[in-house]
Amino acid sequence: MEALERIVFLDTETTGLDARLGHRIIEIAAVEASGRELTGKSLHFYLDPEREIDPGATAVHGFTWDDLRGKPKFSAVADEVMGFLANARVVIHNAPFDVAFLDQELIRLRQTPIAKRQFTVTDSLVMAKEKYPGKRNSLDSLCDRLGVDNSHRNLHGALLDARLLAEVYFAMTRGQGVLEMSHEGPQPASPNMELSCSLPVPPIAPVSVNSNSLASHTAYVTALKEQSGVERTWN
After folding, report:
1. Any idea what DSSP says for residue 116?
2. Which residues are registered as beta bridge partners of 10?
3. What is the pLDDT of residue 64?
4. Is position 156 annotated as part of the catalytic site?
5. How far apart are CA 125 and CA 168, in angstroms?
6. Across 196-222, average pLDDT
7. What is the model's pLDDT at position 191?
8. Which of 44, 93, 156, 217 is catalytic?
9. Which of 42, 202, 227, 233 has the greatest CB tally within 10 Å of its CB?
10. Do the beta carbons of residue 37 and residue 11 sit within 8 Å?
11. Does residue 39 surpass a pLDDT of 90?
């Protein structure tokens, strides 16, 4: 009997838009599926970015550096994260963005970059653009189009977004093949990986919506649209 494909849906939140400018990951989450069913296994960390967070980014996900001081640094969770992704198809919406941030974190640790790891990466944004050309293909837009309930998504959060992405992906690929961009390498995977999510969810202070915050948010979303080519509807 053929083994079911292991799929991991991954999302990150960051301090800003460009990893090359020193921006960092502040939250990372991944949920596992076997075939087309979620297994209930997941990985989720809040991280201390060791730097300030852009106001526009805070307006999107709700976090400031003060919220994250004392959380683990990426170096403390890197092996667990990479182990969770090993031997899986890793699905990411707008994969180049998240992969760039992961690679920068790995470079800091002098570890193997994503392209040389033993897993494949599938960009669900590329899939959506091919399936729905000329339409908005943000995660929110796809949820609306495919009947996925995202009414509880007031701010962006990596774990919620990874779960929503799983539902969107299954809806988009029902009865069809998938488009993938592969990154394969010789690094061996760790068998029987133990998973954990021991960090409590920190309280998120309400974001004050004054004229300055709104302007920062608008500028951030506009820049993200230009970078990814996707219209955003984050209000």
Report:
1. G
2. 30
3. 96
4. yes
5. 11
6. 55
7. 37
8. 156
9. 42
10. no
11. yes
